[in-house]
Amino acid sequence: MKNKNLPYLSGRFFDGISSGLFMMALPWLMLKTPNMGTFVALTALACTSISFICTPFFSTLIDRHSRKAILVWVQVIQSSAAATVGFVFMFDLGSHWILALSQLIFWVSSNIAWNTNNAFTQENYHSHEYAKISGYQEIVMQTTTLGAGAIGIILLEQWGILEFTAFAATASAIAALSYILTPYNRQFTPSKKVSFLSQIKESQSIFAAEPAFYGFLLLSCLSYPVLTYLGKLVPILFSDLDVSGSWVAMYNMAFGLGSLMTGLLISRVIGRIRHGKIMQYSMLVLAIVLMAMGGAIQPLYIVLLTLSFGFFNALNRIARTNWMHHTVDMSQRGRVDGGLGMFATLTQSLSYVLIAFLAHYDAIEFGFVIAGVIMLLASIGMLVLNKRLPLDQKFSQEATLATQN
Questions:
Q1: Cα 345 from Cα 351, distance rounded (Å)
Q2: In terms of pTM, does the model score above 0.90?
Q3: 280-293 tens-digit pLDDT
Q4: CB-based burial, 20-54: b 16+ in 10 Å, e otherwise
Q5: How many whole angstroms separate alpha carbon 282 and alpha carbon 276?
Q6: How many CA within 13 A on the CB side of residue 106?
Q7: Are 318 and 275 in contact (CB under 8 A)?
Q8: DSSP 175-207
Q9: Using one digit for the tens of pLDDT, what is the confidence trace for 257-266?
Q10: DSSP state letter for 64
């Protein structure tokens, strides 16, 4: 296990750096130009819309090809995109549209990498290793993706765009090399007799077979679009309040610190509490935190509350991912993650429409309460669906705990 941990986690480390720089720092660069809040929100909407369209195809590829090879190619694409942006700005041809296009490339490819990593972990590790490697992944991801987003904002105020893109391109290149060096225990070979389109169509029947279980997972997935929603809402709010970029950096670091605490404690938590209960109560706490943010529109209070949001958001996501490691068929994992991702992406798109609407009418502060109410309704829905889970799913939760204890 240790021999494959080091190169794999190194790949995730440098992947997180490059993705964090482009996904979280670039929007702040665009917001430094006056009245760009609507443009940033619409850019995010375009990214999620295209991701939604591409997801069924890419998720099926994950179930048909080497997951290690997909991880490598994603990093090659991201490194090339970052380097291209640097060259464009070197010749004074850069614009907000170029930055938006680069964010689109990183956005779509990062979604592919996310789903591939879940399937790769399930395939490349044994069941008793899932909780521990999830903790390692969370620690690495939060100290890089969100840390790089925070540091990237500071670097953008100190560096030029050329140094920024060179740093991101180098990080992606190192990530690609790390994935190449990771030992891969490929456990199944897809049948070439089944056509690509047939596997795409099969995705619907996979979800229809267990509606209560997948409905529960879908509602749990709402925490991710709420996270990305806050990632746009908070910078726009801070920009309207005319505070410095350091507050945005502190927001990102607070979220990362909260999630980092989850990574340190997750093995103990998952070993003692059923996955469904972890997800259910985490969603309820997230709803309460969002409403508290809506009642305290001050940078300091939002940053402090973000610590709790980061902790319970990560707790919900890791519990869901681990439960899926134990219950979802390995040959279907890419398409299952893809289906959940499509739901999350659709919700993201709607959330960015809401942000654009709120920004247009100078009512951005109401965004927190709206998100809190939606999360509260989702947690109630999860409570209802949990009672309808089939017996084999409930037994699988108990068996998972027994395996990890």
A1: 10
A2: no
A3: 999 999 999 999 99
A4: bbbbbbbbbbbbeeeebbebbbbbbbbbbebbbeb
A5: 10
A6: 33
A7: no
A8: HHHHHHTS---------TTS-HHHHHHHHHHHH
A9: 888 888 888 8
A10: T
